[in-house]
Design goal:
six-stranded parallel sheet, two-stranded parallel sheet, 2 domains, single chain, alpha/beta, Rossmann fold, 10 helices
Amino acid sequence: MKRLLVTGASGFLGSRIIEYYRDRYEICTPPHTEMDITDQEQVFRIFHDFRPHMVIHSAAISDVGMCEREPERSRKINVDGSRNIAEASAKVRAKCLVCSSDQVYFGSQRGGPHKEDEDAAPLNVYGREKLLAEEECLRQNPECVILRLSWMYDTRTLKEGEHGDFFRTLVSRLQASDMISCPVNDVRGITDVNEVVRNFERCTKLEGGVYNFGSFNDRNTYETVSAMFEELGWDTARLRKDEEAFGASPRDISMDQEKLEKSGITFPSTVESLVRSMREFCHDTILWE
């Protein structure tokens, strides 16, 4: 059985990676007490002892506000830690998948959908750290596969300590019969995390480099939810345009998927995914009377 090492195993993404691959791989999820990713010596020792065939690096400080408040701490984890994982992977010849973010496009002077090879100039600390981490990882290990992930949700499971994601927040408002306010100044992909996890294994055959990785969407949030409602035959009168959110700094971090699709990896569009997810969810749940 091949060996898989996962960082960030207790997080939203990492925990779902473990659940999906636990019967396919021998999995190593070293706790922080044994492998602090900012400690190069610890990282190298764990990799030397376990000798993984595949590495999925999902550990990060992804709280944008925390990165702004504690940039030194977040840089150590998001940049230095990522570099250590990439270098250790190269030493044991493991295929390394590094989870990056669509936030690297927040601040781009051109509209989306964004391509991987365009110049990025992120506005926030988190985006800048993710972009720098990409560069550092590829410098240490050119075979690294950098995956720029979009906003993710999970319809099936909400684990202890997790807050509601986009889908769960939408469902709770539907159940409460509230008007649903959706931003018109925010354009980005929204992806079912289970699709992301399933596609990771296929990434082991990709050449090293950067890939946009998630469901395509070029609609703003209001348009996205409206399209989902229309496909489901629901009344869009329950939706309200929110023109204040991101009004001072409209955001379009939608990602072009052509490079990934040419490599044979595909995702359903955001609207397709949301419609399917909502239909599955509604089989067992009454959203409103």
